[in-house]
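Researcher: Please generate the 3D structure of the following complex. Treat every line as part of one assembly.
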Amino acid sequence: MKRRNFIVAGAAAFLAGCSKIGKTDAFGAVVDTAESWNRGLHRALGFGRITMAPEFARSQISPFFRGNGTTEVAGEAYRASAAGGFADWRLAVDGLVAQPLSLSMDDIRALPQRTQITRHDCVEGWSAIGEWTGPQLSALLEMARPTDEARYIVFHCADTLGGAPYYESCDMDDAFHPQTIVAHLLNGEPLPERNGAPLRMRIERQLGYKHAKYLTRIEAVATLDGLYGGNGGYWEDRGYQWYAGI
Amino acid sequence: MSKPEKRHALSTRLWHWVNALSLGILFMSGLNISNAHPRLYWGHEGFAPGDEWLAVPRFPGWATIPDYYSLAGARDWHTVFAIVFAFSLLAFMIAAFLNRHMQRDIFARAREWRPSNIAVDIREHLKLNFDHGSGKYNILQKITYAGVILVLLPLMICTGIVMSPGGEAALPFLTDLFGGRQSARSIHFLAAWALFGFFLLHIALVLLSGPVGQLRAMITGGRAE
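Model: Done. Output below.
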């Protein structure tokens, strides 16, 4: 075999090998380990302080905030509520909590509000800056009081993507993070439909797919097993990592 | 008492091959990730066609890991080998300072920076004469290796951290240093291709300077000259 052919054959075998290895359980276990390492490193590098996503000036806001994933919701109930300006929209807070809640939009607007100008980073690579307003998720959770067994917060949504319901989840560290808010305003206006009207999550230290839109229900759970695909999120059930801080 | 001096220390050889594997996987999975949004911007934000300074061509399957388009799969490879790459570089740097490889062989002396010395070195390289000068590496090698080890490789790590929302929250000064996340993404892309350029040059010079002996030295350690 000529040397050049040998190199080409070697490179092709390496590539085919990588693609095969990528589908094995053992590689999946390595990826899970790396995922928890990355998460642990990001937390550890804060050296005890609560790490914060950068916030920006009004002048840096993107002139148009792109919508991605679902940009129009099909469900009948959603369409009817949208036609009424979401006046009848309810957000449930339940699961492993001492006091389940059902909040109206007025209830949510009556809570102390946080406004933050942050950068939204899509897993694909693009970024957009917007000003988000809403109560901190911690305020809702302090009212509902998750029990000691609760380890994750799950976000249920009104939209489906490719026929499957969208959902997301985060750990208690992100759930109680000061920048984790239930946003109802973008740049001072009620959320446009493409950006998640009437309510969406902002989980600022993670990529865009964690920021569930069209929020209907917030559930405290002990495990993510048995929920939808069991991996803690719509995209996670399709191979993406649950910790999207990288 | 003293063992015969090796041309390459064990720590250097181990790192060389771990790093070669890591960079190969990071580069090829990175090309797959690039295909997810093949536009590059400067500043903090950017997403719209027309705002980019570079529309990146689509990289074919034979150049990417996995060998088909999969953002989730490519990110798995990228985030695993980012850890291998960063910690092996850190370990090598510590070892290379402790065994004085860095100070002795990579850092140039003041006299080596004289234009006459650099000119001689360029002339000898053009004549394909690589056995000149007194130290282990000549000035062009020192500039190249220092540029890769102390500038390009740390640059890949720092711009990678800026692109990670969780990493950026921990080390926010890095974002300011690079002028925003999309600038860091552009620099990450440019530095990756600079490393690819180094790879081609490195292979070419190994082939021109006795590849069998060079390879053997990087595996067994070889013998110091």
